[in-house]
Amino acid sequence: MADTSPYAASAGRSRGRRFAEDPPQGRNEFQRDRDRIIHSTAFRRLEYKTQVFVNHEGDLYRTRLTHSLEVAQIARAVARGLRLDEDLTEAIALAHDLGHTPFGHAGQDALHACMRGHGGFEHNLQSLRVVDLLETRYAAFDGLNLTFETREGVLKHCSAANARKLGELGERFLRKRQPSLEAQLANLADEIAYNNHDIDDGLRSGLLALEQLREVRAFARHLTDVEARYPGLTDRRLIHETIRRMIDALITDLAHTSAGNIRRSGVKSLEEVRRAPALVQFSTETAAEQQELKQFLRRNLYQHFLVARMANKARRIVTELFGALRGDIRMLPPQHRTAAERDSPERAIADYIAGMTDRYAIREHRRLFAVEIT
Ligand code: MG
Q1: 231-276 pLDDT, tens digit each
Q2: CA-CA 20 to 30 A from 3: which of 84, 205, 275, 361?
Q3: Nearest 5°: phi and psi at 147?
Q4: Could you count the other beta carbons within 10 Å of the beta carbon of residue 176?
């Protein structure tokens, strides 16, 4: 039995699964959740989905799969320090991006626009939909039938309108309650992971230059340290030594600040955690520096003209796929049509498109729009 704190989530006291199952043998409920996530189809698809760079642009860039593994690594490191439940933290981290569309935010924005008037498209809600409904692996139920605690962590944000439809799971958004500390932690581990790997990928791609990053305090401080310690160090090693120090400093700050917050709050149970303000947080200075770093990335990487061109193409692919399938629902592969009857044709198309990898979407677009008959 792991040595966790009274304020940690506990597999033995889980609120349970939507469909009752026999208790697992040789592993606990949260470990079973993690295992089901790893074996899911949506998890394997993360290998060919991207956030900033399209999958075929290079083999060394992060994909959503490696991103999710980095999030899990960071989250588990902090969970152990805070004596939270590592298994739940890992399950949430591995599942947090399962609902992402192909082509990162560009794909998601396009799908949301297509779904206007049909309930919209929110990627957090879609991650929940994947684990609750869209995975078809088990005889007794749709989805992965995960515990309440993992599902709660997966649903990071949600609009009030959608929260009202989600019953117990949506309640916290309406009552302004917090999720478990494990869920709060997975959320910030996500931020640490993408800020740092986007710098790394940005430099690797040549869209960012090292000199530009000297204006970012969180980066410059560690860069100067490394240069002083290893004069003459260049290229990849210099970048890697700087980034590993950044990640380490962020993890240390997050663990230290959160431990202080938890101590001062006096929370002694998960129920008290839910009623307290968010306790897993960066210090004020670090949070400000992270904001500055995000702004830098937005200005210089996410809005880079080459990224903007890619995003434009991605939006076009998603929008045209949606339009074609909506124009004739018979073109939707039969296994995706059940949702058309259960929900709406638009939702079925959105599920189909959201499940696509970058390259599948490109191929499917070609299949539907290329003039030659394929
Ligand atoms: Mg993420």
Answers
A1: 999 889 999 999 999 999 999 999 999 999 999 999 999 999 999 9
A2: 275
A3: -70, 160
A4: 8
The reply to whether 202 falls in a domain is: yes
CA of residue 186 to ligand 1 center, whole Å: 9
Amino acid at 169: L
Query: Ligand 1 centroid to 52 CA: how many Å?
Result: 12
Query: In angstroms, what is the span from residue 216 Cα to ligand 1's centroid?
Result: 22
Q: For the chain, give the longest Cα–Cα distance.
A: 67
Q: What is the dihedral of CA 262, 81, 75, 301, to 10 degrees?
A: 80
Q: How far is the CA of 342 from the centre of ligand 1 (A)?
A: 29
Is there a single domain that holds both residue 334 and residue 200? no
List residues, by chain if needed, whose CB lies under 5 Å from ion ligand 1: 97, 190
Distance (angstroms) between ligand 1 centre and the Cα of 25 equals 31
Identify the domain containing residue 328 by its residue range: 309-369
Number of domains in the chain: 2
Token look-up 């290998």 returns: 47
Residue 32 neighbours by CB under 8 Å, 6+ apart: 24
